[in-house]
Design a protein that fits this description.
With 499 residues, this protein is mainly α. It has helices spanning 19-29, 32-45, 72-83, 101-123, 132-136, 142-151, 157-168, 180-187, 191-201, 214-224, 230-236, 239-243, 247-254, 258-269, 317-325, 330-367, 369-374, 384-391, 395-402, 435-447, 457-466, 473-482, 488-498; strands at 49-51, 291-295, 301-305, 313-315, 406-409, 412-415, 423-424, 433-434. The chain has 3 domains: 19-118 and 306-420, no CATH class; 142-269, no CATH class; 424-499, Arc Repressor Mutant, subunit A. The strands form 3 sheets. It has a 4-stranded mixed sheet with strand order 3-2-5-6. The longest helix is centred in the last third of the chain and has 38 residues, at 330-367.
């Protein structure tokens, strides 16, 4: 058999993940907070990018920068639409409206963002209600409070270094989350030395701080009150039984009667499980909706993008033209061309992200219109493929869009993923039920229980069958555990104790 070499030409198709495509996919799955941070980083790296905070329709000729959202006349029209945001109008995005309106949403969103920036800037200027004290002072954090006590503890330099490390490993709730063995190895000291310093730090205020577990935190507070005896220690070692209201088991373990157990539980309830909660911590960022759903006068639902979560950036073409005409080295010219390409691609990616979010939200609202009218009991089963088939996109794209995106509606704030739920078959020929709606039904049934009508999982199955829901007992148990609802035995015991 002879071997030979030859050249063949073949045609084929393959998906190449270019850096630009990777960027577009990344932008799609970012939350609005992460998107704002990403845009800020890109603006720092790219001198051709700038934020458009100006009002639309300003014809002062101060900037010749342009973007891909349309002409200045179109921008003026978008600004006028933004002024009447709450009124029924033609540019309100209905659930079945064409997706081309997404471009207007992105444009008007930026107009709203710019207006908001202007107002906040003027509001903090020099008004009569401006509080200088609130700016010049800040609430002390738990770590700062602990370090102040450490400075007055009288420990030597080595012990203060160990204590400082332990304080850094303490969370905002007041618990020391570090590993003693690892801390000792890092600092090059014995574990017993670290434990001695931890014992000193646990004497700091507030009482119970820097404990390593809930049991230790409660024990520190009880020792402060001189109420930590062997019976109380046994109770703290069996907090699981306290949660189950097993008073008989606790009485036997602690060696006391039921009345004493109730008194001990009352003492524990009066303690503070999070001793550091009263101090300032890292500010939690509030969730901002990406999409608004509004009920229109004629019974439909309007869907529009949130103007405050869409950063509007544009490319400064005037600066680009000036720089391009200057004599420069090939390396510098290549850098400027790359910045121009990246700026154009980022603008298009932001626009496409807005279009995609709006398109997915419109279809979700259309599919779940009964939820917005009647509530969670009427939530329909829905999966990613159903939405993807209607809007002509891939399931993975819909999945990325629904991650970390929120809808604000008359019924509250919901993550987009909330509206996707498995289907539970119906007992008859009726429509299938959403898993979320079934969980809501289970919770409603259990909330209506009395001591004489506590429902077991088997009885819940029968009750649900009466509502036309065919479901297995193990599924009921799974949904009940998902809702963090105790078993029927534990619920009956809790009702008996509260009676």
């Amino acid at each position: 058999m002879a071997f030979s070499q030859r050249i063949e030409l073949r045609q084929g198709q393959s998906l190449v993940m270019t850096p630009q495509l990777q960027q577009a996919i990344k932008l799609l799955q970012l939350s609005n907070i992460e998107l704002a941070e990403y845009v800020d980083q890109e603006m720092e790296k790219n001198p051709l990018l700038q934020r458009d905070d100006s009002e639309y329709g300003s014809d002062d000729g101060s900037s010749e920068a342009t973007d891909d959202y349309g002409s200045s006349a179109e921008n003026t029209q978008l600004a006028d639409a933004q002024d009447n945001l709450d009124a029924p109008r033609e540019d309100t995005y209905e659930a079945d409206s064409p997706s081309e309106n997404a471009v207007e949403a992105h444009g008007s969103a930026s107009a709203g963002s710019g207006a908001g920036s202007t107002q906040s800037g003027s509001g903090g200027g020099g008004g009569e209600d401006f509080d200088f004290e609130s700016v010049l002072s800040s609430e002390k954090t738990l770590r700062e409070h602990l370090k102040d006590q450490l400075a007055m503890s009288g420990l030597d330099e080595v012990d203060q270094l160990i204590a400082s490390q332990l304080i850094e490993e303490t969370d905002d709730g007041g618990y020391m989350r570090g590993d003693i063995e690892q801390t000792a190895a890092t600092l090059g000291v014995e574990q017993e030395h670290v434990l001695r310093i931890l014992d000193v730090c646990q004497g700091f205020e507030p009482t119970g701080v820097m404990a390593r577990s809930l049991e230790e935190c409660l024990a520190l507070q009880l020792k402060e009150q001189n109420r930590f005896d062997p019976a109380m220690e046994a109770l703290l070692n069996n907090l699981g039984l306290v949660a189950k209201h097993d008073l008989s088991g606790l009485a036997q373990i602690c060696g006391v009667d039921r009345a004493d157990v109730l008194d001990m539980i009352a003492e524990i309830k009066a303690l503070t499980p999070r001793p550091g909660a009263s101090f300032a911590g890292d500010a939690a960022q509030a969730v901002q909706p990406d999409v608004f759903v509004r009920e229109l006068p004629y019974g439909a639902f309007g869907v529009e993008l949130n103007s405050d979560t869409l950063p509007r950036v544009l490319m400064d073409r005037t600066y680009y033209a000036e720089v391009s005409q200057m004599p420069m080295r090939d390396k510098d010219k290549e850098f400027i061309e790359e910045c121009a390409a990246n700026a154009n691609w980022l603008i298009k990616s932001l626009d496409q992200r807005a279009r995609t979010i709006l398109k997915v939200a419109q279809e979700v609202v259309r599919q779940q219109d009964a939820f917005f009218v009647h509530g969670v009991a009427h939530l329909r089963p829905l999966n990613l493929k159903q939405v993807a088939d209607v809007i002509g996109m891939h399931e993975s794209t819909v999945s990325r869009v629904t991650s970390n995106k929120y809808i604000a509606s008359p019924r509250g704030l919901f993550e987009l993923k909330y509206f996707f739920s498995a289907a539970i078959p119906s007992t008859g020929e009726g429509e299938a039920h959403s898993a979320e709606a079934v969980r809501h039904r289970i919770k409603t049934l259990i909330d209506g229980e009395t001591l004489a009508t506590v429902l077991s999982d088997d009885q819940l199955v029968e009750e649900l069958r009466g509502f036309g829901i065919e479901i297995a007992r193990r599924t009921v148990a799974k949904y009940r555990e998902f809702l963090r609802i105790p078993s029927s035995v534990q619920r009956r015991r809790a009702l008996r104790q509260s009676a």
